[in-house]
Amino acid sequence: MRNVADVLRRDAVGGFLLIGAALVAVLWANSPWAGGYESLRSFSFGPEALHLDLSVQAWAADGLLTLFFFIVGNELKQEFVHGELRHPRRALLPIVAALCGVVLPAAIFAAINLGQGDAARGWGIPMATDAAFAVAVLAVVGRHLPRALRPFLLTLAIVDDLAAIVVIAGFHTEGLSWGPLVGALVLLAVFGLLQRESGLAGWVRRSPVPNWVVFVPLAVVSWALMHASGVHATIAGAAMGLLMRTRALRGETTAPNHRVERLLRPWVMGLALPLFALFSAGVVFGDLGSTLTDTVSLGILAGLLGGKSIGIAGGSWLATKLTPAELKPTLRWIDIVGISHLAGIGFTVSLLISELSYSDAVVLDHAKSAILIASALATALAAVILGLRSAHYRRRATAAPPAKNG
């Protein structure tokens, strides 16, 4: 079992499982057995009194994906405290790039659908980057790329998703439930306080009660309240990851963020992400001709393929010229261009915003098909660029040192 867990901790293995599950979902949803697939992912279960009578698809997207966002937030916390992003000038670059990569795709979609009535409601669809798929593709094609690209991508994805959540809350929520939201924020604050080095946190660590008895129920209730508030529940996972303590104290062999990530990562990579892909990636393709002539589809394609790449790469370059932000010396601008195409993989949150934007079944099918097409093309473009860059870095790492004269 230990060997299996070690294998599943590798990003590339998790990436292959995730992409494979997504392909199975697409083929299944467009096969003669599509009815069984739809019945399975629409099957609902859970306590209705707690507003958790959710479909299998919702449990996968809001529940299982929360574990992935916990790991993402945990990794970002490590980078901000001890890694590349602890330097403000380098942390500023992906944040500015992400904001540009949010605004430009939305503006392109709005311009294409200007004067098209309800079609313009979907301007938020091309804003978000699917962190799970993007990280998986990076792991598969970029094994020899500089390590600094991963936190750059994670920061992009987190900022993108936060912006998308703001759009959902502000423009696509019937009514934000403030009571559950305040409750979730209070419990998250308690979670953060318990990570501290003294006071109640120290008592919890020294008590005979195992720490998980305190933290697991706290995490579950925080997640449930966040879900009940109308805010995407994965934000709770990212927040808890960002609140994890990154330094081992006296009597601890490892910091809690490393300990928890080592425990969760095999389950996330080997089970949670593949199941999420299986139940979320099943987009049904209709008439491709009418899809590609619909302004909604054109706006999504242009936003994810053009807006994302131009916004992120161009925003990064402008940030280095107009702000104190700087590009890490080990990176090149072509690396950022590859990452900017990878950020064009808009899936989970994009599909969610499309469902909230359109009630017309035909328009919704066109939007979903365009999201999948754009994500596939963005993946292909990024794979070519980053694959070539990975090969370049591999050759450079294995090249023999130059001979000394004399």
What does it look like?
There is one protein chain. The chain is mainly α and 406 residues long. The protein has a single domain, classed as Na+/H+ antiporter like domain (Na+/H+ antiporter like fold, Up-down Bundle). 71% of the residues lie in helices and 1% in strands. The chain has helices at residues 2-8, 11-29, 34-42, 56-82, 88-112, 131-141, 149-171, 178-193, 200-206, 211-229, 234-243, 256-280, 288-293, 295-322, 333-342, 348-357, 361-398; strands spanning 44-45, 54-55. Helix 2 crosses helix 6 (131-141), helix 4 (56-82) runs antiparallel to helix 12 and helix 5 (88-112) runs antiparallel to helix 14. The longest helix has 38 residues, at 361-398. It is globular, with a radius of gyration of 22 Å. The mean pLDDT is 83.
Sheet/helix structural class: mainly alpha
- What is the general shape? globular
CATH class wording: Mainly Alpha
- Give the rounded overall mean pLDDT: 83
CATH superfamily: Na+/H+ antiporter like domain
Oligomerization state of this entry? Answer: single chain
Report, as a whole number of angstroms, the end-to-end distance.
55 Å
Helical fraction equals over 70%
Shape-level CATH architecture = Up-down Bundle
Number of domains: 1
Percent strand: under 5%
> What is the third-level CATH name, the topology?
Na+/H+ antiporter like fold
**Order of strands side by side in the largest beta sheet?**
1-2
Order of helices and strands: HHHEEHHHHHHHHHHHHHH
The number of helical segments is 17
